[in-house]
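Async update (no meeting this week)

Hi team, since we skipped the sync, here's where things stand on the single-chain job. The sequence we agreed to prioritize is pasted below, unchanged from the tracker. I ran it this morning and attached the output directly underneath so nobody has to dig for it. Comments welcome in thread, and please keep replies under the output.
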Amino acid sequence: MTSDNDGDHAEFMDVDDVARRLKVTKATVYEIISLGKLRCFRIGARRGTIRVSEQQLREFLGQNETGEKRPAPRPVPVKLKHLS
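Output:
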């Protein structure tokens, strides 16, 4: 879901949009929202319709970014006396 491109409005996504962007299920999006990892807006009565801004999604991704992959450390050889 997008808004006017006049610069005064933020772009908001619904749960389907967020799930597609992250390549996860809608259930996963609901879970990360309920855990407080992904901030969102709730618009409307009761719990409201969930909307996520581009900025909120960027913040979530930045908080969950991992460093570059490093090879696993090599195990330290252990000398076992009973096998010597």
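Quick observations from my side:
Residues 36 and 60 are 10 Å apart (CA to CA).
Residues 54-63 form the longest helix (10 residues).
Reply here if anything looks off.
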